[in-house]
Amino acid sequence: MSVVVDEDLTRRGRLKLLEQDAPPHGHVATVEDVTRDLTSGEGAPAAAASDGLEKRFVDHGEIARGGMGVVHRVLERSLNRVVALKVLKPDKATSPGARKRFIAEAQITGQLEHPYIVPVYELGVDDDGQTFFTMKLLEGRTLEKAIEDRRPAVDDAALRDAVDVILKVADALSFAHSRGVIHRDLKPSNVMVGDHGEVTLMDWGIARVPEPAARPALAPGDKRTTSLTSFGPERMGTVLGTYAYMSPEQARGAINEMSPRTDVFGLGAVLFRVVSGRAPIEGTSSLDALARAATCQLTDVQGAVVGQLRQALLEVALQAMRKDANERFSSVAAMRKAIEGVLRGGQRFPQIRFRAGATILTEGSVGAEAYIIRSGECVVYRTVDGQRVSLQQIGSGAVCGETAVFTGQPRNASVEAAIDVELYVVAGRILESELGLDTWLGEFIRSLGARSTELVHRSAALAVELQRAQVQRTAALRLLGSASVPLADVARAAGVDVACARELLASEPTFVVVGDAAHCA
After folding, report:
1. Regarding the domain with residue range 351-459, which homologous superfamily does it belong to in the CATH classification?
2. For residue range 458-482, what is the model confidence (pLDDT) as tens digits?
3. Which candidate in 33, 185, 203, 263 is catalytic?
């Protein structure tokens, strides 16, 4: 079956479903159409409407229950495979609104084909009029259960695993948003983590399609585009979602304000739960929690979040959960990028400023931290035989001081601010944690650091010899037509200071230094 957009119907949030062998105008299928067809048997899939569920499936028991539906683990007899079967709860089965939303969930989920979104196999109704849909059975545990079991708020390995799950959820959301779908019920219990690392974003039961979003062409050269169906209009003031993770616009029932940034808030709420161990919205009752959600009164965890990585991730979560949607990340993709930046070590490190000429690092001192230049320029130099030898000039984004941290040896060079500079201070313990210096990898890093130190020493010695040769050559050339040459002229031409020129010429028997001038011996 292929799907094509009809522009007039698209404005009303409908799909034109065309069977491959159907006439060009096909059959228009809306949620209302499917609801009517499944209920009456007209147009329903033959397999779904011809038998009772007990004839087609072997029930292995209930595995989950939500506000609207119940999920069973079943064996599908015809294909001899185990799947998940979702049916409406008995108290919802006679509600037209519940049935419409149930069907909309199946349609929306079925059309979002993505590795991190559960595949839907079939939507139908049995002989008893019970609406159901089947989907891939997910083995594993929810992110909520993983948080309870592994406590990422205090366990570093668990934290990284949980954040990796959130990044995959972000991918699923970005895909859904590209199709015009907003999930609106993001929470750890709606994320399944498989036994082998699979991640699935579940429960699209209250997803919203504010307006159909065109997808790429069906085939190269095909100008037709596909679009998702809309559930239909919702009344202002309708509150849908989970209070503990709900955005302010959801809590107010402000349907017209909901957008992909509503899911940015929800993903931030999940990240908040991971790094702090607590739900972002807590209340003494449901009404209290709803009121707090509407005004964005978040749980205060600032003093309880331990560690620089968690604190940096909490800042990302808090930005995602701003009360004003315009102050949140512009998209889930932007939030994902911020999380990745933190994981790469781009967390908000302390900053320090130095005036031009100030010494930042001193050769021979013990290194407890490294620095990243935020702005400005620095000169790296060594002192060889009493002479200052410049090794390089470094600027914004460059790193200094890391070798001493890696090797545990004294610093092999000094660093001075060439102009006013701002630096990020990276504590040695963070480098050790991020790079695994207490593991076998640390041995490689320390070995590379030791080699780097040796090269610095060699390059400094070579630089001294180069300076010596340059000063002597300059002096010799100047003395070709003169009995003496001012040391200041030699120093300026050789790119060294006067004291350095004096010492280098005095050490060479060819020259004699008298006062502020050099002479041939």
Report:
1. Jelly Rolls (2.60.120.10)
2. 665 566 666 667 666 676 766 666 7
3. 185
